Task: inverse folding
């Protein structure tokens, strides 16, 4: 079970491979569900050339731990890996990785979706976009998913 | 008893009020909402502001204790 906050660019596929080799018991898992969020170069009709991801150090980790604990209580997770980028970020760089290992596919799909939606609704990260015009603006809302309130 | 409370602000809210943190002296029995007004007398709290005490989400009527860290921030947009 691992949660990482990354100030530098990361390769999600490398993260998954390394974590699975080191920490996931071979022969026990039958399903791996992976979600990767990557920065786009457009948002709300504007070209975006960069982004800054602010977070609340300490609270971010605490909330991600809570989300993972709730997921573990609800589904039989063998392992999970959560990685989230912070700081200055460029289009095409990964922002978030959620990987879940379970015995069966239903639990893997459901748990990874829950973790991702809860992260979007409750983990204290904020995006500030740098547009092509050099104007900066804070992102004020998420695209539709399903909201998970702070009580989970 | 006088308490010392650290107040932190993040993201667009930090930009809006022009500070990232305050250290306040306050009396026992003060709520999170009242902490905002003590720190920002001239500014109404934006409608969608979220609050945390010691890094857990709280309602605005939550009472704070000596040494607590209170945080205010806008809706989160990570992932």
Result:
């Amino acid at each position: 079970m691992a949660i990482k906050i990354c100030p530098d660019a990361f390769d999600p596929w490398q993260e998954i491979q390394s974590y699975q080799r080191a920490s996931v018991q071979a022969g026990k898992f039958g399903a791996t569900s992976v979600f990767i969020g990557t920065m786009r170069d457009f948002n709300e009709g504007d070209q975006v050339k960069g982004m800054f991801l602010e977070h609340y150090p300490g609270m971010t980790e605490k909330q991600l731990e809570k989300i993972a604990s709730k997921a573990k209580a609800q589904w039989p997770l063998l392992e999970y890996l959560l990685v989230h980028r912070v700081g200055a970020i460029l289009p095409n760089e990964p922002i978030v990785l959620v990987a879940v290992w379970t015995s069966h596919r239903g639990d893997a799909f459901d748990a990874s979706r829950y973790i991702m939606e809860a992260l979007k609704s409750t983990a204290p990260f904020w995006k500030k976009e740098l547009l092509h015009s050099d104007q900066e603006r804070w992102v004020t809302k998420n695209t539709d998913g399903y909201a998970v309130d702070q009580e989970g | 008893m006088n308490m010392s409370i650290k107040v932190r602000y993040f993201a667009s809210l930090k930009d809006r009020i022009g500070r990232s943190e305050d250290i306040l002296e306050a009396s026992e029995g003060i709520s999170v909402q009242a902490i905002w007004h003590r720190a920002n007398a001239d500014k109404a709290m934006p409608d969608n502001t979220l609050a945390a005490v010691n890094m857990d989400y709280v309602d605005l009527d939550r009472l704070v204790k000596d040494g607590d860290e209170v945080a205010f921030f806008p809706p989160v947009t990570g992932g």
